[in-house]
Amino acid sequence: MIRLLSVLVAIVLFFIWLAPDNHTSIEHTPRVLPIAASLATPIQKEAQNTQPFQIKEYTLQPKAEIHLAARLLGKERYRLGRESDLSPMDLALGWGAMANPQVTEQIQISQSGRWFHWKTDKLPIPRREIERNAANMHIIPANQTVEKQLSRIEEGDIIQLSGQLVDIQSQDGYFWRTSMSREDIGAGACEIIYTTQLDIVPASSYN
User: Fold this and answer.
1) d(CA 61, CA 72)
2) CA 205 distance to own-chain centroid
3) How far is CA 141 from the centre of its chain?
4) pTM metric for this prediction
């Protein structure tokens, strides 16, 4: 009799454990995508070659090397303004928590006037984490391969990018300065990247 009661108790406890209320915390825990965890802050190194070089009437001064893997949050093509003479496109990129679509789907992202804008009704992660893990980058394609890749990439793609952070000036006094930090915000916080390599990472590499 005691053995039968033990079996019945075990069965009851098993079905209580299966009840939906006991699994709420599991069902509602956001799935952390492996790629989001692997996309760390861009790597910035001292420039090996700091010799200025010329494109059109502009002098580009290398400031540092930069290498990154990030999720494309948006891209915007520009045709007006002197900046577009060299940089026809801006990429809004996210890494770390901002590479996770379960975070970014709660944030409205837009680009205009060479700026990257975001807003949300409720912060899915701390504001400072958003600011540190996303940036608007002005892309100067170094070759036709990069130009073609710029036209191919789409929002949500994971990309790898390498190049040089550069300051730009011309003899008539025009000057455009790159950001040198991923920590800054506001005016002057965008990176200007002379981009030598741009690749789309195959999904099989991070699934």
Assistant:
1) 26
2) 17
3) 18
4) 0.79
